[in-house]
Amino acid sequence: MKERRWCTVVLGAGVLTFAVVVAATALSASDTGVADRHPVYVGVRVCSECHADAVSGHQFSLWRVSKHAEGYASLWTAESKKIAELSGIREEPQEAAACLGCHATGADAEEWEKEEHFHVEDGVQCERCHGPGSEYISREIMMDREKAMMAGLKMPTQRECMMCHNVKGSHVAIIGSSVFDPTEGMKRIAHPIPDSEPAAIAPTKMAKDAKAVKHKYVGVPKCGECHGGPMMNYQFSRWRQSAHARAYAVLGTFGAYETAGAAGVKGNPQESPKCLRCHSPGSDLAEDNFLPGFDPGDGVQCESCHGPGSEYYPEAIMRDPAAARKFGLQPVGNKTCMACHENAHGREFDVEAGMRKIAHPTRPTETDRHSLGPRYKTPLNLALSPDGCELYVACEASDTVIIVDVATREAVGEISTGGQPTDVAFNPDGTLAYVTNRLDDTLAVVDTRSRKVVQTIAVGDEPHGVLTDPRGKLIYVLNTSADSISVIDAETLTEQKRLPASRGPWSLSISPDGRRIAATNTLSRFVEFRTPSISEVTIIDTERAVIEDRVEVPGANLMQGVAWHPSGSFAFVTLNRTKNLVPMTRLVQGWTITNGLGVIWRDGQVDQVLLDEPDMCFPDAADVAFSPDGRLAFVTSSGSDCVAVVDVNKLIQMLNSASEYERAHVFPNHLGKPTEFVVKRIPTRNSPRGILFSRDGKTAYVANALDDSLSVIDVDKLEAVARIDLGGPDVITKVRYGERVFHSADITFHRQFSCHSCHPDGHVDGITYDIEPDGIGISPVDNRTLRGILDTAPFKWEGTNPSLQRQCGPRLAVFFTRIDPFTPEELTALDNYICTIPRPPNRYRPLGGKLTPAQRRGKTVFERTTTNDGRVIPVENRCATCHFAPLFTDRTRRNVGTKMSLDRESDFDVPHLNNIYDSAPYLHNGISETLEEIWTKYNPYDQHGVSNDMTKDQLNDLVEYLKTL
Amino acid sequence: MRSRSRRKRITVIAALGLAAGWSLAAKASDRVKGGALATGKADATARPVAQTAQTPELPYVYTKWEQFTTKDGLPNDHIFAVKADGDRVWIGTEDGLARLDKKTRRIKYWKEEDGLPWQVVAAIDVHPGTGDVWLGLFGGGLARFSGGRFDHWHQLNSGLVNDVVYGVAVENDNVWAATTAGASRYNTVTGEWSIFTEKNAPMEEIWNYGVCAADGFVFLGVWGSGVLEYDIERGTWKDYLDPDGEMEIDLYRDDGIVHVITTGVSFVEKTLWASTYFGASRYDGRHWRGYFDHDSGLPSNFSNAVQGRGANEAWFATDKGLGALMDFPTDTWVTYTTDHKTHKGKALVQRGSEVIAEFETAPNIPHNYVLWVDCDGDDVWVGTSKGLGHAIGEGYYPGLKVADRVTMGPRADERTTGRRAIP
């Protein structure tokens, strides 16, 4: 093999560096307990050392002109952002694991797994398909295919292609990409090594310009260090997608040989000074004109137009235009372009059009800015300042808290607090407001005078409810996804301890005497398979900041809102009573999901009553508040857009006059009782959630989540008398419309429930359902999260629904809703919304973050091909065969030996594993409460991967790794 | 949850006095003057039956005891673990978890039918911040009792290495479990389980008996592997093995831990106390000191557990009584035993192997087979094979005091009228 001339310049040094880096890597790997020979990514530039020239068939150039090379760069585009949005990805696509898993190479690798010359920005490079190359990259090994494969070289098949090229609904929706033909795809990227060097190629020796210059070329990767990402409007990615970036590579194509030949160039165009003058400016210079990192193979790069950058590239200089010019940054004008483009290949060149084509402004254009849809507010919860003058409204979609002046009923301020603000509370003197950011796992502290976030601290997973104790000394934050309560010292803003909640702690309310806090938990505790739910109200002793009691609420789930009665004798909680043990088709008997209130007495006794009436249900009771005099309780129903007015005395009297039997067995399910204590239902706007009363009790305010507004209720009139606009967009997009459909119970018989009732906020309710109409409990299935499901078709545990349209279409009406199905318009909108449900970033490992030793060992277990005693694990029974990145599903149905007596099928859909830790229970019927049980209890015959040879510590490691996916 | 209150019953309260001619005679007579005991056992008046003239300083001797058995509301008399927790005492028995309310003297208990995940509670620790009670279940794994709810981790549903748990200790956000197949560490915040066995710790045997955590360290008492010290910050291990190997005699005195078959560990005031089946040890980071039944007040070499009260005081639960090293510098011990035939108790004060005072008392510990001991302020709780003993330390003092200033428990009249004496 011949070496390119710059190999000695760049890669010669690079190989040396590589050796050092590999040695260092091995050392650090040893330190962390990883085998020394663990492969690392070396990067396409190292591959190109041998795979670039004509003898190798210009393989490097063929890759460079391919879409694969632009895989990462393409993620900057508006289309990519739309796809990400449609997939519920809130991060930049260039920083999202789900995107980079297919658009780049080794994006999830640890730093030590990436050699110095490896750049994730190089997109889908050699090692994406052939595996990390450190162990097989040497010439000696690579000359022997068998030896190379023994050392880790993979020769991908069409199956590997399909791991990324399987049809993705998100991509189809935005760019209309069609079904991928792997055979054609393989042809398109074919890069065979020619049997012999083309006879026509007689390399022309390039004449080097021995003249050394003061300014040296640093190479485009150095420029890209500052000019990538949204802050610089993705300049690097824009260049990478341009013809300029491919300028050198195209010289290795067959067409280039023809063009060059026609122009009188003999031999390899990539070695022709005539071609390289414009296709790789600078490559004609002597070696000491380059700094390490400059690769002429990058074609027409930044310095081709702006001049060699060794003197001006430092950020401090670049931030001063005059200084940059002084140090060599050249202005670019028509002459710059025309130096190469004037009559190039006999074609005219429109300079202005060309300039527009390669424009790379540092700020987004208007078009860029408006490429995404409007941003809604989605107010969820609100708090009234202690002086009663201002409302702070936590707005999930806009990542802000909006301040409403109570007197003028106008929004007077908006504060960015973090991702998905969910709840807000004031300290006792009102100088500070605390805001939970569910997406970011943080608590933002807002100075109410300056209306600025003064500090943000980390809390647990998906914080929801927040409240302080009466003195404002401690802040309680409910970590909904971690099932815990953070207790934070308000003065130091340090977490003192975490208290164990139940599952999905949601909202808080403090007793009038300040001694107890009641916290609702939205998910039932784990219960025996196919037994009724048991939910919990967690009682906190504020004196000692410990859990004092756990009140069990049998048969209930989705307990969310909570409020203490001013007397302190009891608290109300909102709840659903989901009859998941009977077929969903029993909806018509009023026996699927009922909605109501729990009365939590101070001594721990519990009563439950419904707010449904036989022909008018009260779906998704979300929040509750008492009037200051304790006479009324207002309860929001996000599924029917109304507020129920409960006469508290009537309700309590009804309970007190009833028998124990009635209270325990009749009232919790009695649809006729609400008429005795619900005095009115007040219509609101879309999806009312949080509610509170003014200090004087004359007014109540309701956060209309899907109307970006507050409803103002006159308590005397029991009417909504005003709407406070929070400033959301006027237009209702298809996604927003779908969100409303999702949260509305209009689709079900007697409005019993909405999609949200089983998939609260798009996630799970943790319950196993009997969906089939047989009536005898056949095929119970675990409820699955909707987060990030778009590209995981087919749907349903039995994998029988190829699309969301099918999943949510007429079938839904037959099995669930028992009423007219969604209209086509509703269905399309609904599917659009479901796809956009945000998926939180992984809590156990940021993208590319360092794995813990246990996680690293677990990764080895996940990827293992042999058992502990050396037996080869069949390919079909390896973890990574069915669960491969980035979604960790092969989207097929598999028999993993989990069929039980109630199941019709033995093959079940392979679930994706993203954030698998937050959607327990597991397996198709939810029988496995923990990840461990999947293998300790439900894999007796090694059908769900080979696990029975594993030691306990290996299983622990595997579980730790799974949590990082 | 069922609530079972029982009237407290004080079985016997020891009475104590000193013989005429001794410097404390006058005070002792004051104590005796109080008259009848709560139990009405007039013969319980204590008197020294042996003394030496060379005892100018004495340790505190617990003379006031109360006992709790199933008659008082315990679910079972086989007491494996005791943990004082503020106003409450948690008691692990062979068949249930019990909680004694110190103020009301009421005992409430939980058995399997009440939600306790496993009947045998072998170890208890309390998280100082959350107040949650962690239970080591002998054969049943690990449980947390929080706000009235039991949460259960075992080797099938979690990363716990084995269900036979002998010891449990809370360390920051972690909970350690000493099991028969290694030690497990559970991070209550991240949910991560770690296992420590011969693979990643200097654990020659993996049968872990005891565990304690304090001052940045975790100590494991391992059957056959001595004591293992885990530096929390560094994540490193250090082992303490018997230089004499597995020999059951101590060839060279104080050259290391007395034996590798370790049953209990306690680390307090930077001093490690260890109990073994062949004696006991103290280590101050520089010097080892070994104790045996023939040269100290240790009632037996077969020690089930140890609880250090400080650098100079430790209590040993043995199969032949309760031994308390009350003053390390002078090697002064008090040994508590009960004669199960006569139902009389005895407190023996020793300096090394020399008996310097002996007192007959009413029964002190419920049974001489002692499995656990826990110091609780001035008081001491003792788990035995036939009930729970409570040593009431009114007037307790650490170390020694000159004899004429010694207070040896409350006066008898106080005992008959005091809060604890209500029958």
Descriptive overview:
The complex is a heterodimer of chains A (965) and B (423). With 965 residues, chain A is of the alpha+beta class. Chain A folds into five domains: 1-157, no CATH class; 201-372, Flavocytochrome C3, Chain A, domain 2 (Orthogonal Bundle); 435-729, Methylamine Dehydrogenase, Chain H, CATH 2.130.10; 737-836, Cytochrome Bc1 Complex, Chain D, domain 2; 853-962, Cytochrome c-like domain (Cytochrome Bc1 Complex, Chain D, domain 2, Orthogonal Bundle), CATH 1.10.760.10. Helix content of chain A is 25%, strand content 20%. In chain A, the strands form nine sheets. A four-stranded antiparallel sheet of chain A has the order 1-2-3-4, with no helix packed on it. Chain A has a four-stranded antiparallel sheet with strand order 5-6-7-8, with no helix packed on it. Chain A has a four-stranded antiparallel sheet with strand order 9-10-11-12, with no helix packed on it. In chain A, strand 3 and strand 4 form a beta hairpin. In chain A, helix 25 (734-743) packs across helix 29 (824-836) and helix 30 (853-862) packs across helix 33 (952-962). Chain B contains two helices and 33 strands. By secondary structure, chain B is mainly beta. In chain B, the strands form eight sheets. A seven-stranded antiparallel sheet of chain B has the order 1-29-28-27-26-25-24, with no helix packed on it. The two termini of chain B are 27 Å apart. Classes of the chains: A alpha+beta (965), B mainly beta (423). Chain A binds chain B through residues 460, 482, 484, 496-500, 502, 536, 538-539, 544, 546-550, 844, 852, 854, 917, 929-930, 932-933, 936-937, 952-953, 955-956, 959-960, 963, and chain B through 129-132, 144, 146-149, 151, 155-159, 161, 173, 181, 188-195, 197, 199.
Overall outline of chain B: globular
Strand order of the largest sheet of chain A: 1-2-3-4
How much β-strand is present in the residues of chain B?
over 45%
Low-confidence stretches of chain B: 1-51, 405-423
Biggest pleated-sheet summary of chain B: 7 strands, antiparallel
Radius of gyration of chain B: 21 Å
Largest sheet of chain A: 4 strands, antiparallel
* CATH homologous group name of the largest domain in chain A: YVTN repeat-like/Quinoprotein amine dehydrogenase
Give the number of DSSP strands of chain A. Answer: 32
Principal-axis shape of chain A equals globular
The top-level CATH class of the largest domain in chain A is Mainly Beta
CATH architecture of the largest domain in chain A: 7 Propeller
- Based on helices, strands and strand pairing, what is the structural class of chain B? mainly beta
As for the number of domains of chain A, it is 5
Beta-strand residue fraction of chain A: 15-25%
- N-C termini distance of chain A: 41 Å
